[in-house]
Amino acid sequence: AKIRRFKWEAKYEHKSPDCFKKLVITINGRSPGPTISAHQGDTIIVELKNSLLTENLAIHWHGIRQIGTPWSDGTEGVSQCPIMPGETFTYKFVVDRPGTYLYHAHYGMQRDSGIYGSIRVSLPDGESEPYAYDYDRSIILTDWYHKSFHDLATGLSSIPFVWVKEPQSLLIQGKGKFNCSLSLGTDVCNATNPECSPYGLIVIPGKTYRLRIGSLTSLSALSFQIEGHNMTVVEADGHNVEPFVVKNLFLYSGETYSVLITADQDPSRNYWITTNVVGRSPNTTDGLAILNYYPNHPKRSPPTPPPTGPSWNNTSLRVAQSLAIKARQGYIKTPPQTSDRMIVFLNTQNEINGIRRWSVNNVSFTHPHTPYLISVKHNLTQEFDQTPPPNGYDIVNYDIYKKPTNSNATSSNAIYRLDFNSTVDVILQNANTMVTDNSETHPWHLHGHDFWVLGYGDGKFDIYKDPKKYNLVNPIMKNTVPVHPYGWTALRFKADNPGVWAFHCHIESHFYMGMGVVFEEGIERVGVLPKSIMGCGAVKGGLPKP
Ligand code: C2O
Ligand code: CU
Fold it and tell me: Which residue ranges does the record assign to the Plastocyanin-like domain (predicted)?
């Protein structure tokens, strides 16, 4: 195993990813930032310099479990104090499993500003995947707002509440195309700016490509398709999938997949790669990239119109794809057949003090001033609410099909304390929003662990009947999973990673509005915390004297 060192500098630059000029946070001048490529077992060291001048920063390594290094998780308020302007923070962690992972800012809604990238972990030399391919490529899908995240976040915290609305465009590997004729002038939006020419994926006719696709959208669920080419899904969130073939791949924010494609079509032309919004009534320009058959000109537009995905409101198609994702034969990690604890999380919208929030069991999450890892480890009990948050909701009486009437929602920074090494089941229960006949899709992401996806269902989870339907034979393990409209998703994980870990909706505005919880386990096993994560809240000047 190797040590791989990276020196990164984050700064604001004017960029035009979709032809519209905006302030973007780049890493070493790029958005998406550099790809981290490593082998299983390597140690990654990232020296991150915050050159944002007047803004704090933290970067999370999405899908990396941080076993033994919970202070490198990069989650502001949970695992560290933010990195202040001018400071350099060193992240150090081991990439202990092969697969496709991501990184992104984890401080307020900062991820929206373009600070994200891919992590690609290969098997050690001499080992190979259970599928064959000639080349390996990574693509990240995002959606893109023209307003700054400061502007969006301010709206979400204002009375009256101002919703972020649909993003302006979809980006494929950091490039999109907004229709500049809707905009103000070529100094603001310039359709001929080479920065926003579509991303081109070059393929050699006859070869097979492993495409590692990750979604880091702010809001949108996506359908991804490559004109004229089927995709064979082989990996999800770092785990081998029993292969299945799709024309459209649905991705929720925080998910990664590997698909195999073979360049076996007419090689005299190029093909479209497209993304479009599903699950919400779309009002966003589709993402367009080009599958460029070598040696055709990379910019030559395909002669046919770009393909679109299935209609945005076809929920059953999306549920069917979620259900199709199973662990690959020969690579199944069998889950524990029983659990020690079940927690049911009801996801609702509420109004708290005149501001619209998302709540979990009627509690809307707020960040504390001192990161939990420090306050829990050092027993700084004043730093967050010590009352345990609710383990469930009123399953008998709550009507998930009605607008919530629960006026008793509260904000809290309380956390769930799990017994070390226990097996925990989490049921994510969806419900109606504050809009009549509306329920949204939420991609939930767990830090520090992978979980088994035991099942998805429609309607209200029945704690007696539904566990009997769990897939305990070949469930896939993931770190991000969708909860479909009016449905539930059941997960199981082992609380075996000492630390404090966020579990939240990966929609940037939803988490900002309180859609998340925090788990603690085995804190007594966490080693001495590095001083570099301190410097805020109660540990501004270091740890208080005992
Ligand atoms: Cu990719 Cu807590 O996030
Ligand atoms: Cu959500």
Answer: 10-122, 138-295, 403-522
Domain 341-536 has CATH 1.10.510.10: no
Residue type, 7: K
Q: Which atom of ligand 1 is nearest to the CA of 447?
A: 2
H or E element: which one contains 274?
A: strand 271-278
Strand 88-94, strand 135-144: pairing:
unpaired
Pairing of strands 271-278, 221-226: antiparallel
- The span from the CA of 530 to the CA of 507, in Å, is 30
Residues 240, 97 contacting (CB under 8 angstroms) = no
The pTM score is 0.97
Tens digit of each residue's pLDDT, the chain (546 residues): 999 999 999 999 999 999 999 999 999 999 999 999 999 999 999 999 999 999 999 999 999 999 999 999 999 999 999 999 999 999 999 999 999 999 999 999 999 999 999 999 999 999 999 999 999 999 999 999 999 999 999 999 999 999 999 999 999 999 999 999 887 788 899 999 999 999 999 999 999 999 999 999 999 999 999 999 999 999 999 999 999 999 999 999 999 999 999 999 999 999 999 999 999 999 999 999 999 999 999 999 999 999 988 999 999 999 999 999 999 999 999 999 999 999 999 999 999 998 999 999 999 999 999 999 999 999 999 999 999 999 999 999 999 999 998 667 999 999 999 999 999 999 999 999 999 999 999 999 999 999 999 999 999 999 999 999 999 999 999 999 999 999 999 999 999 999 999 999 999 999 999 999 999 999 999 999 999 999 999 999 888 876
Q: For residues 24 and 116, is the Cβ–Cβ distance under 8 A?
A: no
Atom 1 of ligand 1, nearest CA residue: 62
Which residue is listed with tokens 């494609």?
A: 261
Closest by Cα among 119, 145, 291 to 212: 119
User: How many Å from the N-terminal Cα to the C-terminal Cα in the chain?
Assistant: 40
Nearest to 124 by CA among 261, 288, 2: 2
DSSP H or E segment with residue 360: strand 355-360
List, in sequence order, every residue forming a beta bridge with 458; answer none if it has no partner.
487
ipTM for the predicted complex: 0.98
Which ligand is nearest to the Cα of residue 221, counting in written order?
A: 2
Measure the CA–CA gap between 111 and 115, rounded to whole angstroms.
6
For the CA of 59, the nearest ligand: 1
- Domain residue extents for the chain: 3-324, 341-536
> Which of ligand 1's atoms lies nearest the C-alpha of 75?
2
* Superfamily covering domain 3-324: Cupredoxins -  blue copper proteins (2.60.40.420)
CA dihedral 62, 516, 283, 178 (to 10 degrees): -40
For the CA of 480, the nearest atom of ligand 1: 1
Q: Ligand 1 centroid to 61 CA: how many Å?
A: 8
